[in-house]
Amino acid sequence: MGLYDVPSVSVAVRQDGTEPWAHAYGVATSGAADTVSPRSIFQACSISKHVAAFGALRLVDQGVLDLDEDIEKYLTSWRLPESDDWRVVVTVRQLLAHTAGLSYNWFRGFSRGDATPTSTEVLRGQRPATSPPVRATMLPGSGFRYSGSHYAVLEQVMEDVTGSEFAELMRSLVLEPLGMADSSYDQDFPRRYGQVAHGHYLDGTPLPGGWRVQPELAGAGLWTTPSDLTRVGAEVAHAVAGRSALLSRDLATEMITPQVPGGFGLGTSVGDDGRLRFGHTGGNAGYGCWLFTWPATATSMAVMVNNDMANEVLLAVLAAAEHHYGGGGSAPHRAPVDVTGTYRVRDDYIVKITGEGDELTLHVPGQAPLGLRALPNGRYRAIALDCELAFAPRDGEVVLQVRQQDMTLTATRQP
């Protein structure tokens, strides 16, 4: 937290049948003495989409929406614009899965006190909205592209079909039934609630006014705590097991099933390397977070921070969580061949792998040795970093791939 200027971190872990362990570290505002508690609220950022998807699927369960129906059936206050007399057909499923091919938008929020757009102004790109109009830019269903536009449209669909404002609708569909008393999509909620972790920039400077207002509610507008978020993860897991009174087993299974190659279900990021994990990450101006559930260990965990570039902190906690909760008691898979040896990334960067079996160590120029932890499918993770290693035999050689955030190094073992 000190290294990356993160004033506060809040964590909750819920295991089946128990109330969560929760703890908060640090202060609500950098340089102040107001410490945070597990009930201090943060912006849930794009985890808002995961929770909104749960609400939308409840409407599907109730017969109010159909996953594969053209959204034109439901929209009354706005329409996707035609292009050269061609009208695009988009379904609720495609909105939830980010496969509708709508224009890319990331909603940056508004300063407190500034005019904020209505949902239809956001969709039309009209002032005071600061994002471009929502329109089709790819063939719907052809592939995955993450965009806030999909959930801006979903929000309008849900409002039009029910006649209810989104914040109130989500209160009745999700927040109240799950007992999420410290949560709301209402952008006035932080002022009324009082216990707020204020957002901060990369250098630890507080956001003016403490936070930005997010009128694009379904995509980025939820205020909540990690403890409340774990209620959502646990309920989805219960639904998949057929033990939820809120969501059917079939729809819950759809929710955590990738809709196209790429690992994204219905409002849900899905990872399955032999150990299923589902949930969502998020990042707004001033905030970052993740919520994941590991069904094998009946565990849901959420982490929220109040610095918008705290990825290293979030990833470090996620790596530890994977170790503690992702295993499900099964033994790690060993690499397919003996992978120890010397690997050439380039002439001035040679790395070594030493050890035996699952107890390997990575040696890189100028650094202390890094212990590696075995993962499924012959992969390893350097726990001290967001760094994952994979080995593959190729033409009689062993090729090492080192993934670091958005970059992958490739090296071949030397004779």
From TrEMBL:
<dbReference type="InterPro" id="IPR012338">
    <property type="entry name" value="Beta-lactam/transpept-like"/>
</dbReference>
<dbReference type="InterPro" id="IPR001466">
    <property type="entry name" value="Beta-lactam-related"/>
</dbReference>
<keyword id="KW-0378">Hydrolase</keyword>
<dbReference type="InterPro" id="IPR050491">
    <property type="entry name" value="AmpC-like"/>
</dbReference>
<feature type="domain" description="Beta-lactamase-related">
    <location>
        <begin position="4"/>
        <end position="308"/>
    </location>
</feature>
<dbReference type="GO" id="GO:0016787">
    <property type="term" value="F:hydrolase activity"/>
</dbReference>
<dbReference type="Pfam" id="PF00144">
    <property type="entry name" value="Beta-lactamase"/>
</dbReference>
<protein>
    <submittedName>
        <fullName>Serine hydrolase domain-containing protein</fullName>
        <ecNumber>3.-.-.-</ecNumber>
    </submittedName>
</protein>
